[in-house]
Design goal:
The N and C termini lie far apart (93 Å). With 200 residues, this protein is mainly alpha-helical. It is elongated and about 60 Å long. 20% of the residues are buried. The protein has two domains: 85 residues, 2-Layer Sandwich (Potassium Channel Kv1.1, Chain A), CATH 3.30.710.10; 55 residues, no CATH class. The chain is built from eleven helices and three strands, in the order αββααβαααααααα. The model has no long low-confidence stretch (mean pLDDT 87). Strand 1 and strand 2 form a beta hairpin.
Length: 200
């Protein structure tokens, strides 16, 4: 009698070493992102074109799958049975094209370039698209630049966009230097409601 074929492949007794959790490989993650970015840069396998407020622009070729991973907004837009979900062009009329390009770059690279000129539009767009890590980086950038010359603007931004902790920090600085700030051009340009919000 020949031994059963299955008996030749009996598994060895399991040990604790066989049940170790899988190990992450950061290098592979970087290579994966680089590969997706290369595909996006050449338009390979891209299945949607994003357009911002400038409708005349050529738009940004993207992969729906990448956008869905990075943004719950896009996940909802592309997975629901909406007319726009399968359209070749997806328009975001409330986001300017340069801001949209920065967010797409982040989606494919996990890197974000911020400056004093770009941080506010990127923050507002990131909150709209529910890209929480991007919004968090923007708030960190703004907080690091909180000073006497920026506290009025920071308080206004944080109050309007649901960051009470940063609004409170800016307000403390405003109260500490109120007499000096009351003579600034930024203060004089504020309407009565904005001034009242600083006094409450």
């Amino acid at each position: 009698m020949y031994p059963s074929v299955l008996s030749l492949y009996k598994s060895k007794p399991s040990s604790s070493a066989d049940h170790q959790p899988p190990q992450d490989c950061p290098t592979n993650s970087v290579e994966f992102l680089r590969g997706m970015r290369d595909l996006q840069a050449t338009g390979t396998f891209c299945d949607v074109v994003l357009k911002g407020s400038d409708a005349s622009s050529q738009g940004i070729p993207c992969h729906r799958s990448v956008l869905c991973v990075q943004s719950p907004y896009f996940r909802a837009a592309f997975t629901h049975n909406w007319k726009e979900s399968s359209a070749p062009v997806f328009r975001l009329a409330n986001i300017d094209n340069s801001t949209l390009k920065e967010l797409v770059t982040y989606a494919y690279t996990m890197h974000l370039r911020l400056s004093d000129d770009t941080v506010v539009p990127v923050l507002i767009a990131a909150q709209f698209l529910q890209m929480t890590p991007v919004a968090r980086m923007c708030w960190k950038y703004v907080k690091q630049r909180l000073c006497l010359s920026s506290c009025l603007d920071v308080h206004d931004l944080a109050s309007q966009h649901n960051n009470p902790r940063l609004a409170s920090a800016a307000l403390q600085l405003i109260h500490l230097h109120f007499l000096s700030l009351a003579q600034s051009l930024e203060f004089l340009r504020m309407d009565a409601q904005q001034v009242l919000s600083l006094l409450l």
